[in-house]
Structure formats: C-alpha cells, structure tokens
Write a sequence for this structure.
C-alpha cells in the first residue's frame, strides 16, 4: 500500500514535469516567434533597429502565452470562491500589480544610473519587458499575494515544481538583465551596446535559459526534491 | 619635450610636481654654452629647470590655479622695456592664465574670450617691435608661438584625448617667403620636432636625445647647400641616437636610408664643387632632400617606438613577491577569521628550513646568472648585494610560509573529513554577492574600458548591494510573523534543506542549522515605525547615491555630459552653490557632533563656520548679506583658523584614547575618542574639498548613520560583511568626489589651502588626503563602529585582516595583468595611471591597517 502510493506520487511528479516542460517550450517559442514573425508583416523590422517595436511585441506575446497556459494548465487548483465579481476584482488587482512593478522597475533602473529625462520610453519598455518575464508568471501562478511571493523567493520556501521553476526563471531573468549591463562601458562601438538594448537582450536570454534549464534541473534532482504540501 | 626633443617617460608625471634641474641635453643649455643671452618671464618651473641659464628672469609660481590675471600681468609688464632694449638673443615668455582658466572653469568659460584677445594684443606688440628692429639688423628674427598642451572637455589636461594632445604651433619670421596661392593648410608635426628646428635655426647643436626631425618648411628659403647641411646634421644626430639604443641598428630601414642619402649627398657636393650649375644639380638636390626627409621620418618613428624598454627581471621579482604575500593572506583566511583571530605565520617550522635554504640558493644562482648575462641596465641588479640578498631572503621565507600554510590547511581539511558532524554552512545571498562582486571587479581590471569607467563598476556594485539588503530585510521582517508558521524551530530543519534554490551544490539532505536564520534570531522584531525606517533605508541610500552620481561625471566616455557640479560652479549659480554648501555644512555638523564631547562640539561648529568663511574669502561662495563682494584673497587666515580646530579636535581624540588605555575599563571614553578623531578628519575634508563636493561629504555621513542604525545593528551582519561593505562604499565615494583613474582629475589645489607658497611635504599630504578622503573616512568609521559595537575584541583584528585582504586582491591581480599587457596600446594612457592610483591606495590602506592594529592593541591592553 505504501509502496503503491510512492510510485503513484513519482508518476504524478513525472507527468507534472512533462507538463512543465511543454509549457516552458511554448514560452520559448513565443519569444522566438516574436523575433521572426513580425518581419513578414512589418517593413524593415529588426531587433536592433526597431528595438522598441520588438520589445512591445515580445512582451505582448509572452503575456498572452502565459495567460493561456494559466487558463489551460491550471497549476494551482485552490481557488475556492469563484464568483465572477471576485474574478474581476482579482484581474484588476493583477493589472494594478503589473503596472506597479513596471513603475518600480523603472525607478530601480534610474537609481542604477539610467538617464532620468532622456530615453524615458526606452527605459520604461525595458521595465515592461522585465515585468513580463518576472511579474506576469508570478501573478499567474501565485495571484496578487505579496506574502506568497516573498515566501517563494526566500530560501527553501517553494512548495511545488511550478513554484520552483518560477523561482529559477525569474532569478535567471534578473541575472541576465544584471549581466546585460556589463558591455555598456566597453568601447567597441557596437549598436547593441546602446542603453537599454544589451540589458533587454540579457534579460531575454536569461529568461529563455531559465525556461530551458528549470525542467532539466528539476528532472535531475527529482529524487531529492520533496515539497511540504505534497 | 619642447626643449630636449626627447619623449617623456610616464614617471615624469610624478617628478613634475617638484621639478628638479633638467640634466638632459637641451636647447637652452646649448644656447647657454654658445654664449647666447636669454631672458625669461613666466612660470617659475622654467627657472627651476634651467637655473643660472637666464641673464634676466621673473618667475611666477604656477600652482595657484585660481589666479588668472596676475600671472599674465607679471609677464606683460616687462615686455615693453625688454623689446626696446634688444640686448638679448632669446626671449621666452610663458603665459599661464589660459591654463588656469581651463583648470578652474573649463573651456567654455566666458573668461576665455577676454584672455584670448589679450594674448592677441601681446602677440601684435611683439611682432611689430620685432619687425621694427629687423630693419637695422642683419639676421632675421623668429617668433615661435606654441602651447605645451591642449585642454580636455573639462578643462584639465594630462590624458590623451584629441583636444589635449593637439596644440597650435605658429612660426612667424620675415625670413619666410610668402607663397602665392592663398592660405595653406596647417600641417601636423610632432612636438619633439620643435627642439631640433630651434637648434638649427639658432645655429646650435641639436640636443643629443632628441628624436624630432627638422621642420623642413622653416629652412625652405635657404640655398640648397645649407638645406642639405641642416638635414645632414639632423640625420647624423638621429642615427647616433639609434646606434646607442638599438643593438641591431644596421638593419633598421631608417639607417639604410640614411646611408643612401649620405652617399647621394656626397655626389651632390662633388657636382657642386665642380661648378656644375645645371638642371642636374637642382634635380639631384631635390632628390637628396626627399631622401633625407624620408630617412628622418623613418628614424624618428623607429626611435619613438624604441624608447619603451622594460626591466623584465625586476618586474618578475616584484610580481612574485606580491603574489606570495597574497597567497599567504588567502591561505590563512579560514584561520584568521576563526573566533580566536590568530594570524601566526609559521616560519620556524623545522621541516621547511631545508626548503628555505634550497630556495634561497636557487634564487641566488638565478640572480647571478641573470645579472651577469644581460647587458641592459636592470634596477634589481644595480642594487647593492646585501639589499638583493635581503629581497631573496624575504622571497624564500614568504614561499616557505605559504607552503606551510597550505599544508596546515590540508591537514585541517582532512581532520574535518574525519569529523562529519561539523555542519556545512551555505553562503547567504549577500555573501555570494560580495564574493562575486570582488571577483568581477578584479577581472574587469583587465579591460581598458573597464579601467576607464571603473566608477560605473562600483556604483553598480553598491546599488546591487542595497537591493540585496532590501531583499534580506523583507525576508526577515515579513516572514517572521503573520500567517507564515515559525520556520525557525529545529523540528523543521529536515524539511528546510529540501529545496535548495540557486545553489549549484544543492541536493544533499544533511540536517544543517540555517546559519543565516540563527544569526538573525536574537534580533527582536522592532516596532512599527522602526520597521518602516529599516525598510526605507536602502531606498534612501539608493536615492542619495543616484544624486551624487549625477554630481560629478567622471571617466572617459561620458565625462563630457553636463553634470550638476558644472552647473553649480558656473559663475551664474553662485547663490545656489552657497545655499547648498551651507546646507551641507549644517548636515555635516548635525551628524558629526553626535558622538563628540562638548568641547569638540564647539570646536567643530567653529571649524565648519571657518570653512564657509574660507570659501567666501577664496570667492567660491557668497555671504547672503554681502552678495556682491569682489575682494578675493587666498584665504590663508581663514584656512589656518580651521587647521587649528582640526588639530585641536584630533588632539582631544588622541588624549581620550590614551586616557582609555591608562584607565583600563573606560570603554566609553575610547568610543568618544575615536569619534572625535573621525570628526576631526571630517572637518579637514570639509576644508579641502571643493564647495560643490560638500554634499558628497554630507551624504557620506548620512549614509553611514542610516546604515549603522537601521541596517548593521538590527540585522547583525558579520564583521567580514561589514568590512567589505565599508570598503565598497569607500571606493564608490572616491569616484563620487569626481576622481577617476586619470591623473588629470587629481585636485592639486587642495595642497595649497592655507599656504602662501608651495611647500612640498604638506602639499603632498593634503592632496593625498583630499583625493582618498572617501576610503579614509569610511575606514575610520569602520574602526569606530566596530569598537563601539562589539565587545568580543576580535572584531577589529578580523576587520583589519579583511580590509587588507580585500584591498590587496585587486592590486596583486592588477600588477600581474599590467605586466602581461605591457605592450597594449593603452598601457601608458590607461593602465599606468591606474597603477599609480593603486600604489597610492595601497599606501593609504597600509596606514589604515596600522591604525586598526593600534586600536586593536589598545583594546587588548585595556581588557
């Protein structure tokens, strides 16, 4: 009896990991498609020259994929009250949280040394895309609940593989954006060294790397991972 | 370079501040030897460089950069008299005003236009009188107008941007023929060419170390024979220099061209002597001239590239020594950071005595072989034998100590393995950030752009540090209470290790006490207001740093951007600057008086008032009740008034320290004494820093206060973390002040505060203090904080060790990097100034560590 439950748990876990992997594959595809598809519709589209357009398209597509995944996969089935007014309020709250995160990222970039008056649109779109990579998955998975966020992002606070992968992708995007600032002072004179292109590219690469790596990492360490709630 | 024609070495920058007698062969010396009568007016440096060369001179001291009318009037007032007299052969005038304006208010200052038109009128005066004089003399005279350097976007010089290294050179003489065909385009020549040209023009021998070539257009008006003669002289001199410096000079293309043109010249002379006055002679002559000019150019280029020679052997010895010390420090880290804090260097262990003697002998043998085999001069070989022997002894002793420390560590490691009960401790995010930041900074020193923009690295690091602190605070304060179950009980430890995030070593399930949690456990969760202050403090620090960052733009790539500092120092915004300076001084007083005794409080207040009066007297700021006073002095009385208070406060502090040492148990007196020393240094810094940099000082004190009361005390960081944070903030404040890794940004005016003339030792000390005021103040604060907080007694020695380690890692790695990059294109313009800064920083660090050790001793004797 005991053995049976263990095997059941492990198969459940394996299917979970598979679902996670497919979901992440979809996210990666959305990033890749947002770089290549628009060039069929838009004249003279390229990541470097029409960077802002790319940022907008990428952020919209990643958000859409995340929302669809959330509705289809439903990783946390624990919403008890589901009246429509409650749902609307929750959605509005999510929107406000998203905007707040955009603005606070903007403030942080300015504190890091981004120009205050010039290039406001560029800086803000960078904040938007970083929020897309980090805040939107958090909102989808955890809802507008700051306590839960803090729990997930503190040491040893995750309670499912979904949260674990969320932690990894978010931190990977932050580290990518952080590392993306390093080429800016170099005197190579390349077009991608201009603020904020290297940072957005760094964030994107970090996000994609997090998406790809997190299922693999969870799969490798699946024996050791035990969650409190499971 | 103007007078000797040789290339300046980099170390000449250091020598520049007190110019000794120029011993190299130069034009002035040659002219003196030829009995020419020379007159000089202008910068005193010339008189020091060429003592007893001038029959008449009037030197002006050049270091009061805020004075830009008197220095020039001092020159011009002699002009009429001298021009009328005409009993001289060479007249040198050095006008300083433009340089001073550039230093003080930059190239876009409104003063520059006036100064330039003044210079124009001076030039016209000289030219007309020279023309008048030429009517009754045989030889034509030559008027040379040149600048010794240009001006960067900020008004300084000494770096290598295009604006700084390009200067005009104008030669005016009636001997030149006016060519038809409008204005000719100016040509580019080397500064070193001027010495050769002047020597030829004056009929003097060319200085023997000159690498310049004759400016040919100057002698174009002469007959063919003389032209050839001049060119021949110049090439002979250059090829001699080549023979001295290059062993394989015969294969040099320049030398071959020289031989060829000499042969052609011989042919031409033979034809000339045969009285062959045909077209052939002229054609051959022009051909010879072209050949000579080519030879000159090639010789000049190959000489210029030959000048940089490296003393590889001495460099290797020095690098090995530095690396050994670093290895010793690194290897003894675990030992030194234990609670006992013992750093014993095992020198006398008998097992290593054999190794020691062997290394010593091998090194000695290498030394003898190297020194007997090389011909080129080598600093280390020229040392006396006992000195070299001492260095060898030190090297081998260090090696043995490092090896034995390594062996000890291996032994400890194997002991640990036998005893698995010792818990593994994981790094917290903050420690991870500190290690990554240090490593990243060290690695970034290998790139020239990162060295130029090092301030960006530090700003980036302290920003990240603040964000990491925010995260830590949030975790501590929001997860402790509320609906989150208390996860701090040992019951849950088995679960705690289950999901290691981020760490690559994750996956093991050893029950371990969470060190971070344990350390933070005793901190009682403070009440509401305190909590919000703690939460807000990193953001306050971030905002402060952002403001300071836009105060002074430094570096290279973005240095030209407008910043608040320039806006404040421009003469239209004097009122704003005065308000800001007064406000900052007030903040400094409020923050610095907290820990002082009443006497020092009064002294501090008076001293800060004195600082403001000094700035008014110098003319930087205004009194609100006298908005348009114009009397500008050097402010010597005011500055000395402040010095008295600085010395007084430092003296009280030292007295308190000594008292605490004598009356063993008096802990509070010691804290007060340390704080008084700190506030004395703050007062000195307030006096020396430029008025627009006073906010830097104020916010440094503010950040220290905020960090102390809201971050370090409640969160209970370890000594090592606090030390590293102090070091990082110190480095960032070094750049917030407007410093950079470029010699041009050193503010030498700080060395003249309160002095009539240039006095070497205090000027050097004051300039060094003003430059390194950021790191010094933070280190001083660290001493005070640790000795007031910790009663354990080992905190200070831990901090001293960490400080020494964290400062020596970049220096050691940088020395290795620079040695391996010594043929890099930017070695002189970027890497060498940084090396000078690092060397100076190392001296400052050594002083700080000595202070640490002294404090540690007093605490040991007191307890």
């Amino acid at each position: 009896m005991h053995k049976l439950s263990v095997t059941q748990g492990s198969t459940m876990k394996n299917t979970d990991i598979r679902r996670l992997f497919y979901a992440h594959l979809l996210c990666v595809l959305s990033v890749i498609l947002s770089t290549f598809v628009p060039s069929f519709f838009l004249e003279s589209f390229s990541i470097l020259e029409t960077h802002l357009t790319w940022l907008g398209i990428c952020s919209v597509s990643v958000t859409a994929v995340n929302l669809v995944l959330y509705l289809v996969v439903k990783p946390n089935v624990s919403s008890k009250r589901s009246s429509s007014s409650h749902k609307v309020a929750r959605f509005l709250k999510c929107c406000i949280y998203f905007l707040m995160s955009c603005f606070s990222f903007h403030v942080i970039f300015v504190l890091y040394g981004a120009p205050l008056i010039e290039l406001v649109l560029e800086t803000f779109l960078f904040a938007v895309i970083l929020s897309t990579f980090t805040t939107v998955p958090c909102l989808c998975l955890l809802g507008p609940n700051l306590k839960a966020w803090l729990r997930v992002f503190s040491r040893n606070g995750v309670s499912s593989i979904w949260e674990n992968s969320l932690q990894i992708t978010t931190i990977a995007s932050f580290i990518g954006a952080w590392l993306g600032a390093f080429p800016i002072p170099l005197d190579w004179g390349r077009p991608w060294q201009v603020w904020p292109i290297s940072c957005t590219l760094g964030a994107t690469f970090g996000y994609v790397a997090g998406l790809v790596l997190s299922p693999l990492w969870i799969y490798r360490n699946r024996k050791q991972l035990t969650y409190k709630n499971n | 370079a103007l007078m000797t024609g040789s290339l300046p070495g980099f170390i000449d920058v250091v020598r520049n501040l007190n110019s000794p007698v120029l011993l190299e062969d130069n034009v002035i010396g040659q002219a003196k030897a030829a009995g020419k009568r020379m007159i000089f007016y202008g910068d005193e440096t010339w008189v020091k460089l060429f003592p007893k060369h001038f029959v008449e001179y009037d030197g002006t001291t050049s270091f009061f950069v805020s004075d830009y009318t008197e220095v020039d009037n001092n020159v011009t007032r002699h002009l009429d008299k001298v021009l009328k007299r005409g009993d001289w052969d060479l007249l040198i005038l050095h006008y300083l005003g433009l340089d001073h304006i550039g230093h003080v208010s930059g190239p876009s200052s409104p003063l520059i236009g006036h100064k330039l038109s003044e210079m124009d009128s001076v030039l016209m005066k000289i030219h007309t009188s020279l023309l008048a004089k030429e009517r009754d003399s045989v030889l034509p005279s030559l008027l040379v107008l040149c600048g010794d350097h240009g001006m960067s976007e900020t008004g300084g010089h000494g770096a290598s941007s295009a604006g700084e290294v390009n200067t005009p050179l104008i030669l005016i003489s009636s001997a030149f023929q006016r060519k038809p065909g409008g204005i000719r385009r100016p040509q580019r020549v080397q500064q070193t060419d001027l010495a050769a040209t002047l020597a030829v023009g004056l009929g003097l021998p060319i200085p023997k170390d000159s690498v310049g070539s004759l400016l040919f257009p100057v002698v174009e008006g002469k007959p063919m024979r003389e032209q050839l003669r001049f060119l021949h002289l110049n090439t002979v001199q250059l090829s001699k220099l080549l023979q001295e410096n290059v062993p394989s000079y015969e294969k040099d293309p320049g030398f071959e061209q020289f031989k060829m043109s000499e042969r052609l010249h011989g042919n031409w002379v033979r034809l000339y002597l045969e009285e062959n006055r045909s077209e052939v002679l002229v054609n051959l002559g022009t051909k010879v001239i072209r050949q000579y000019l080519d030879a000159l150019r090639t010789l000049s280029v190959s000489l210029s590239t030959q000048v940089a020679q490296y003393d590889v052997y001495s460099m290797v010895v020095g690098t090995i020594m530095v690396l050994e010390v670093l290895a010793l420090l690194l290897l003894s880290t675990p030992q030194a950071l234990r609670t006992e804090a013992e750093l014993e260097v095992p020198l006398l262990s008998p097992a290593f005595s054999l190794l020691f003697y062997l290394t010593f002998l091998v090194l000695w043998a290498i030394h003898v072989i190297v020194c007997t085999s090389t011909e080129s001069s080598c600093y280390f070989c020229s040392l006396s034998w006992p000195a070299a022997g001492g260095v060898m002894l030190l090297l081998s002793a260090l090696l043995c100590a490092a090896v034995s420390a390594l062996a000890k560590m291996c032994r400890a490691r194997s002991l640990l393995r036998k005893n698995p009960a010792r818990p593994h401790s994981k790094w917290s995010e903050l420690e991870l950030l500190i290690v990554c930041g240090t490593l990243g900074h060290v690695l970034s020193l290998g790139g020239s752009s990162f060295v130029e923009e090092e301030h960006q690295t530090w700003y980036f690091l302290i920003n990240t540090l603040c964000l990491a602190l925010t995260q830590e605070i949030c975790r501590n304060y929001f997860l402790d209470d509320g609906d989150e179950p208390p996860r701090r009980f040992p019951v849950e430890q088995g679960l705690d290790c289950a999901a290691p995030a981020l760490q690559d070593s994750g996956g093991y399930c050893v029950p371990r006490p969470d060190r971070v949690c344990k350390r933070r456990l005793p901190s009682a969760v403070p009440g509401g207001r305190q909590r919000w202050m703690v939460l807000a403090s990193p953001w306050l620090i971030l905002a402060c740093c952002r403001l300071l960052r836009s105060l002074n733009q430094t570096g290279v790539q973005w240095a030209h951007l407008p910043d608040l500092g320039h806006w404040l120092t421009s003469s239209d915004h004097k009122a704003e600057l005065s308000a800001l300076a007064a406000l900052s001084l007030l903040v400094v007083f409020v923050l610095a008086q907290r820990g002082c005794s009443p006497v020092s409080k009064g002294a501090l207040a008076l001293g800060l008032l004195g600082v403001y009066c000094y700035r008014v007297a110098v003319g930087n700021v205004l009194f609100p009740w006298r908005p348009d006073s114009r009397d500008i002095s050097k402010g010597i009385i005011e500055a000395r008034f402040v010095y008295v208070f600085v010395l007084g406060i430092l003296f009280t502090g030292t007295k308190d320290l000594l008292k605490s040492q004598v009356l063993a148990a008096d802990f509070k007196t010691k804290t007060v004494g340390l704080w008084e020393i700190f506030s004395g240094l703050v007062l000195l810094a307030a006096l020396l820093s430029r008025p627009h940099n006073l906010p830097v000082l104020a916010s440094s004190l503010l950040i220290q206060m905020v960090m102390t009361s809201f971050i370090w005390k409640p969160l209970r960081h370890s000594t090592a973390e606090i030390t590293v944070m102090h070091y990082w903030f110190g480095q960032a404040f070094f750049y917030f002040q407007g410093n950079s890794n470029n010699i041009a940004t050193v503010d030498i005016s700080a060395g003249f505060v309160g002095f009539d003339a240039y006095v070497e030792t205090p000027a050097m000390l004051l300039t060094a203090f003003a430059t390194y005021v950021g790191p010094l103040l933070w280190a001083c604060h660290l001493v005070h904080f640790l000795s007031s907080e910790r009663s354990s007694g080992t905190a200070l020695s831990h901090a001293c060790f960490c400080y020494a380690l964290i400062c020596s890692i970049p220096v050691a790695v940088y020395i290795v990097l620079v040695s391996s990059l010594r043929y890099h294109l930017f070695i002189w313009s970027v890497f060498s100034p940084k090396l000078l800064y690092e060397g100076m920083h190392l001296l400052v660090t050594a002083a700080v560590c000595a202070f640490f050790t002294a404090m540690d001793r007093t605490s040991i004797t007191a307890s």
Q: What stands out?
A: The CA atoms of residues 28 and 142 of chain A lie 21 Å apart. Chain A has a mean pLDDT of 82. Chain A has one domain: 2-74+83-220. The interface with chain B takes residues 108, 110-113, 116, 146-147, 150-151, 153-158, 164, 167-168, 171, 178, 181, 184-187, 221, 224-228 of chain A (CB under 8 Å).
